[in-house]
Design a protein that fits this description.
Elements: E1 9-10, E2 30-36, H1 64-81, E3 89-96, H2 104-118, E4 120-130, H3 137-145, E5 150-156, H4 160-166, H5 175-184, E6 188-195, H6 202-214, E7 219-224, H7 232-238, H8 247-263, E8 266-270, E9 273-276, H9 288-294, E10 298-302, E11 307-310, E12 313-317, H10 321-329, E13 335-340, H11 343-354, E14 361-362, H12 363-369, H13 371-374, H14 376-382, E15 393-394, H15 398-402, H16 404-412
Parallel strand pairs: 2-3, 2-10, 3-4, 4-5, 5-6, 6-7
Antiparallel strand pairs: 1-13, 7-9, 8-9, 11-12, 12-13, 14-15
Helix pairs in contact: 1-2, 1-10, 2-3, 6-8, 11-12
GO cellular component, one term: cytoplasm
GO molecular function: 4 iron, 4 sulfur cluster binding; coproporphyrinogen oxidase activity; metal ion binding
InterPro entries: Aldolase_TIM (IPR013785), Coproporphyrinogen-III_oxidase (IPR034505), Elp3/MiaA/NifB-like_rSAM (IPR006638), HemW-like (IPR004559), rSAM (IPR007197), rSAM_sf (IPR058240)
């Protein structure tokens, strides 16, 4: 079951945005997220807005691309009527769900609509997530020919028993073939791992990390398993069917992953993300799209349940594909609710997000948040949580990365 939507003020049916969204818009980059909400099965740990065929209640996969393309046209008018000057897109990310549950031609059609509506900056990063069982070389070639240049594969684990606990249904043996095919058609590659599944040993985790490294992707993400309320996994743990997640073991697994990835030539650039160095003449292997989130840029989220952000105005669409398609067909904004963040909340969010990246959190932001909080930095350095050689910035050490949430709480509550 997908997580409930946050509370907010009702969004107007015309979707028009308040004036705050347009203030200093030229200083921010513009991005698109496209949500594809379909999956063969819902993994036990997943609380994303996803649906199997039996959950669609009349919504049509075959018509989905048309609905998204209609929302793209609608968004152009909303931005224009809300006083935001036209901006080209800097990144596009197709997530889910499983975007590759729909034909490659549909993904390419949506991308073409974004290009025709907003245009792209030179060197734009265009990514699709994929399940390794739902793509082959022919599918990936169609994506590459249609303008995609990056694929992110949901690997999670190389261990069948761990995948079974997570209720991931893909065959791990397919990963090498899919990564090789993606590289062959010219796509940059990323794989996602999850650590901390109930019963996963540190030896199993090491095997998964080494298997990911052996694929030689350009980028690797490793996320700690979070047990979300309302998921099947949460119910299994509550009933005693599965063990509680061991947070100390999760920390050990993170440290091991960082060691293995660093040794293999991957550099951390955000707490959960590592990338290979790219030649100066080549685009970065870091996820430019994720930087848009971490640096509080502007993005429009298309599709049911997708979230958007413009200048401190945040809104989210209706969740179910049927409700989404109905609104779109009537010319009504799919936005369900929104919130306008005040200056303090926006500043706190910047601290929360920017402390996570290796570029560091500017001390001037902490000063703006609370002059007293600046005094904590020396204590963080003394405790080995923050690097001592980064003037003007707070850059976390390995230990600091493990305690990032605690550091943020201290900074924002001082």
């Amino acid at each position: 079951m997908a997580a409930p939507m946050p509370l907010g003020d009702p969004a107007p049916q015309d979707g028009l945005l308040p004036r705050q969204s347009s203030l200093d818009a030229e200083s921010r980059t513009f991005h698109a997220y496209v949500h594809i909400p379909f999956c063969d099965v819902i993994c036990g740990y997943c609380d994303f807005n996803t649906y199997t065929s039996g959950d669609l209640a009349g919504a049509s996969k075959s018509e989905y691309a048309k609905s998204v393309i209609s929302e793209i046209a609608q968004s152009e008018q909303v931005l224009k009527q809300s006083g935001l000057a036209p901006r080209r897109l800097s990144t596009v990310f197709f997530g889910g769900g499983t975007p590759t549950q729909i034909p490659a031609e549909d993904l390419v059609s949506i991308l073409a609509s974004l290009r025709n509506t907003f245009d792209f900056v030179p060197g734009i990063e265009i990514t699709s997530e994929a399940n390794p069982d739902s793509v082959d070389r022919q599918y990936l070639a169609k994506l590459a020919e249609g303008g995609f240049n990056r694929i992110s594969i949901g690997m999670q684990s190389a261990i069948p028993e761990v995948l079974a606990t997570l209720e991931r249904t893909h065959n791990p043996a397919n990963l090498p073939e899919v990564i090789a095919a993606a590289k062959a058609v010219g796509l940059k590659t990323s794989v996602d791992l999850i650590y901390g599944a109930p019963g996963e040993s540190i030896e199993q985790w090491q095997s998964s990390v080494m298997a990911a490294i052996a694929l030689e992707p350009d980028h690797i993400s490793a996320y700690a398993l979070i047990v979300e309320e309302g998921t099947k996994l949460a119910r299994q743990i509550r009933s005693g069917e599965l063990d509680e997640v061991d947070e100390d073991l999760q920390a050990d697994k993170y440290e091991l992953a960082d060691k293995l990835l660093s040794t293999a030539g991957y550099q951390w650039y955000e707490i959960s993300n590592w990338s290979k160095s790219a030649p100066a003449s080549m685009p970065t292997n870091k996820s430019s799209h994720n930087f848009a989130y971490w640096l509080s840029q502007d993005w429009w989220g298309y599709g049911p349940g997708a979230h958007s952000h413009m200048g401190g105005v945040r809104w989210w669409n209706v969740k179910h594909p049927t409700a989404y398609a109905s609104r779109i067909s009537q010319g009504i904004s799919p936005a369900l609710a929104r919130e306008t963040l005040n200056a303090r909340t926006r500043l706190e969010e910047r601290v929360l997000l920017e402390i996570r990246i290796s570029d560091g959190l500017p001390i001037e932001l902490i000063q703006e948040l609370s002059p007293a909080a600046v005094g904590l930095i020396d204590h963080f350095v003394a405790d080995g949580l923050v690097e001592n050689n980064q003037p003007g910035k707070v850059v976390l050490t390995l230990t600091g990365r493990l305690l990032a949430d605690s550091l943020v709480r201290q900074l924002t509550n001082t």
